[in-house]
Amino acid sequence: MSTEEELFSAVDALLEQVAQDDLPAPAERKRLREAAGLSQAQIAKALDARREAVGNWETGKTEPRPPKRAAYARLLEGLAARFPAPAADAPAPVPRVPEAFTGPAPAPAPAAEAPAPPPPAAAAASRPAATSRRPGAKKAVSKKTTASAAAADPRFENGPLAVIDVDTDGQVSAYCVGGLVLDVPAKTIPALVDWTLAEAKLGQARLHRNGRDADPILVLTASALERFGLPAALSEEERHAGRLPAGHKVVKQVERAGLQMTQRGLGPWARLYRDPEGSRRRCVQLCVLPWHALDTREWGKKENPELLLTMHPADLARYLGLYAARVMTPRGSTATTGLELMTALRPPTRAEKNPATGEFERAYNEDALTQVYPVVECEVPDEHPILKDKFARHHLRTPAEMLMEEPYDWCRPLTDEECANPYLVAVDINMSFAAAANGLVVGLNGPTHLTGNPKFDASLPGSWLVDLPHVDLSRARVNGRTVDGSRLPSPFTPTGERPTGPAWYATPTVAYAVELGFDVAPIEAYVRTQTGRYLDSWYKRLRDAYVDTMADMGVTTDLQGQEFLEAMARRKQTDPTMALLETAIKATAKGAIGKLRQRSRGQVSYYEPYPALERVNWRPDIRAAVLANQRTGLHRKLMKTAAAADLYPTSIGTDAIVYPSPGPSPLDVLPTTPEGKPVPGGFRLGVSPGMVKHQGTQTVLWAEQQFEERGGVFNISNLIKTADPTAGEGE
Fold first, then answer.
1. Residues 232/226, Cβ–Cβ less than 8 Å
2. For labeling, which of 270, 505, 567, 659 is most exposed (least CB within 10 Å)?
3. Which residues have CB under 8 Å from 505's CB, separation 6+?
4. Single pTM value for the model
5. Is the dihedral of CA 682, 686, 691, 693 positive or negative?
6. Angle at alpha carbon of residue 340, lines to 334 and 344, rounded to 5°
């Protein structure tokens, strides 16, 4: 544990004041931290404490102990001197933000390889202190109310993005994070872009020292479209093309102004740029909200498709600003952003000085994906060009011809004993795909073909042709016990059926067969010899974003049992913006893994190259490894739960698991040790990725009625939900 002097030194880096051991009231502690724009994570890092501990100090749940107490008091005293409590009769400032605004958002992290986590924004945060009436001017206050006060990059002091809106008086305004509102003098799209590049101070610092800064994002509302001469909606032809036609007046304005556009033109997500000035990019991205740039299934609520269009610009800026601060600046869909996050955290190249010439040259980073490598037939989807003329028309590839690593879709009939239970309780795994990526070793180079019955090597990621019908779960031993294999799905197929012959499997699946105690004899394999934990930093970024967002809704990592279940049940009523953010973060994790093997979306004919194939991170082998790790990891917990409590699932859908239960709560069914703790290696309630939460409860009678209506047993796992419509969608 750090000494008091070391803790004081850390605090002095934040504040140069004298120490005092008297602590203010918990609510005042929180006010002082937010007034200084500091996050709980920053306080925790300085005090060598956990972020959850700082949150507990601010709610009065616990009190700091020496030597942390003295250091914490030292910090709070200095903050109180800088940010005194407002007098009770003092008039409140009048910002140019309507009452719909719910609070400030954090600014982007400064440029660094490992930026500090941005501060959470609570629903009850204070309103912004002032706004700007001058185009592109700085805030009219010296003490900022967001994290930018601490260490924001001065180039991007107004945040990563702005929502452009026009009021009834015709005033064009840019709503930024933290409640800042800028007056925009531009009357055309080219003028708007130039104003952004010259005055707005928008953007986000790079997430890795070898990466690049994020371009500023301008979110255009319906009123902004009308003001700048853009149509309120795209025609059917324009929507299919994804852009306005070349002859549109605004497109001509852009061309006359000397601005350039990418091949996707002026569409829902448009990139407008000028030639770089040295190493400085001069690029602005437009996010056209009424043209469905933000898919409501990912960024909004499916039951309320108009939500994003009707949000006040200040609330929308807060929402997207929080996402940018915790994940990254949006780049399109959540899936696209999640894929871009991988590259932002693991850039393929770096600048390296040539000792002979003294010039900087491009060098490749060994821990990244750097180029497009040859693909393997068994790993690619059916429409891939490499499969042309390989199979007869409409041929369905078999597991011996195609790597079929997918999530579970499995069910079985209930036994008579299980039907005696009144309830079916469904739990689902938090961020299951992201959790499966954590610590996973994947291939970074091209495939090497191994033939002649190679020996299995779990350290080599890739695809193995193996015959596994001999694996009988009833013969496997878990903690010295056996299980009823007939009531568990096979870990080797998505349907849970036992394999009947040789099939292609990713390395994690074959390694799990070895873990269960069975011999494996590969026939051939395609492996990667250059390996690394490519997804670790991606997982950690999304994990922190998810955990911080859940904490802002009152669901912290220290909650357990009934306390956790109650916090989860009320979380979305705490802060609607945070509820949207939770959904977007989960969609980012899930979608990014899917895009590693993005399929053709009809852009070209079957067997013709499509754009996704040109990406260095179009890597179906990595996607297969993640899904295999997710499925086998889930199965490992099923086995340990069955061995410990003779408890078996009745259906599984991706990451939703249904168990017969004597009571309606997960606490009634998930087994515990005699000390009341979760069974080691089994399912554990909690908010962290990989832990489980309650998805919903139904009665066994309800299930029997469903089976009768459908004429047989089917997978009901994703029909058992709470009132939360996003539950059970496979996170």
1. yes
2. 567
3. 403, 405, 463, 464, 466, 468, 492, 628
4. 0.79
5. positive
6. 135
